[in-house]
Predict the 3D structure of the following.
Amino acid sequence: MMFTDGCKKILFSFVLFVAMSLPSVSFAYSYAAAGKEPLIDGREVILQALQANDYSAVETAVLGLKEEFDYLLSDHNVDLLTPINAAIENEDGVKIEAVIDHAVVEEIVRRLEGAQNNLEDYQVAKVLVVKSKLFLDLILPKLTGAQREQANLAIQGVLESIGNPGVFGVGQAPANQEQFKTEQAKLLSAIQGVRQH
Amino acid sequence: MLERLGRTMSIQFILLYVVWVMWLFAYPFQLNSDDALNFHRAIERFSVLEFRPHFPGYPTFVGASWLASILNPEVAAANVVVSFVSVMLIPILVFVIVKQLSRSIFSAALAGMLVMTQSLMGALALNGLSDSLALVCLLFALLMVLGKRYILTGVWIGLMLSTRPSYFPLVLVFLMVPMITEAKGLRVSAYLKAGISVALIGALSLLFIWVKDGAAYIEEGIRFTTGHFTIWGNTVSTQDASVIQWIDVLVSEYTAMSLILILCSLLYGLSSFYRFSGMNTSDKLDGRDQCWQGIIASIGLVYLVWMLLAQNPENLRHWAPVVLLFCIVLSLQLNELLDTKRNTALVASVFVLCGFAIIGWQSINLRPDVAPVQQAIRWINNQSNNKFIGSNYCVNLLKDRLTDSVVFDMYYPSSAIALNKKSDRAWRLSNTELKNNELITQFPARFSGERRLYLYKMSQ
């Protein structure tokens, strides 16, 4: 019943390889949660609180988004904190939802602007537009069929216009500034209606 | 006697294969999931950051799909063509491998037929995903390593990993092969040949991805891997999933008895190492073939551990490598029995084949022509206007195909709130049964590995 040396080696290798596969799995466990967005999470809390008519929960959630609102005011000159606070004061649920949707549109606008300013940096531009699509998906149900189609086509056009980085020039597709601007304008015109409250 | 049996069995294999191909070919080639849609979009523009396809990119599968779209520009879903052709190759490759290992046409035909009784093969053929092509690469790698063609073994292993990186545990046992089958002096050369080939294919794949996405690929990889293990992957690291879920799914698909048979067969396969070690030096040269049963069983068992720990039990397709390798191992074991206890072996072969044929038949639904999500799309498209649909399944495919409807992603709690406001004309599509909702209709699965969908009327 004795194993030969060969078999011992085989068993040892087997155990070693299984052991090698495990650390990579447990390593992955230790990473932080994947890519959360404060405005998306905050919007969810606000809409659920509105459903429950809990305006103090709405107020708390809006306070949690203060940094986002402050940024929109300081860097983009869009004041949404005043109207949303007024709407909370008046317990106007429809208005609160409209303002928070407006904030979602502003997130799209500022990310697209950021991408446009960084078109020479593939990674920055692409990540900004991909993130803006996350926000766009949230407000698509608020659009008409034609606007949805226009917005979907436009965001794909924006993504396409960013090009490819290539490796040492091989396979490189430079960003197309003109295409970016055209598709960006189409996208913004499709979602313009959600920007008003 | 055995020769005649082998001839009869091979004719049955060919007949069954023709019927099987014609049957599966009768189904339309359509996109049946968000992942399949992502692969389809990747043919046009590849970018892992855009989920075209999702991480890790599957470059060989996308390349094969691109090639299929060039060869047949008319086809609506080139990635489904690739998965279909791959599945068609699997029984043939299994036949060739078992024939080579057992020198028995009877066992080879038995293995090929066992593969075709697996209802899961239907889902793999039509899902447009990378599993089936990766399995083909695995079988080619086995075939090459059997012939000691290590450069080609490395090429096929590289292509398998580039098609489906989560199949890497299948490779671990391959690393043992030169230690068992090669004389000491030839082992280093075998490792070098295979290693260089794998590295070359790996480098080309990474280069392709890097050209398209650059260093951003790494960041996306970290984000995606984290999400897989903590949010959406439904693996043992996520809260509500466990190995028990896998066992539940497999028992309901295969019955406990079949599962025990599969496990016992793979574990018994390991004993071929022991039998090999008991041989004297001169017999070992001939006996090396016997070790293959142990090697193939080990590949299956190592992958099984990985699957239980790190793969989502909601996707039965992750089970495909285990059942495929079981078909090979069991046929080799029955072939061994054929030499000593012929009648027992024949009865066992018929019993196993009929058993899996019955299990396979029971999990096939011949009525629906299209996949559940395509049935749902057709049903919703046939309704009058004002359509609002909430779903936690195939959301992107629904958005893409239901352009007249408003599709809500039920991942967000606000979607349920918005849909409830339109409850008189809103539906909820779900892949699980929901309580407290009025069931409107169901969309049945066609094979194992597909999921039945339920359509509910939204209620307050």
In short: The CA atoms of residues 157 and 183 of chain A lie 6 Å apart. Chain A touches chain B through 48 residues (CB under 8 Å). DSSP finds nine helices and no strands in chain A. Chain A has a mean pLDDT of 84.
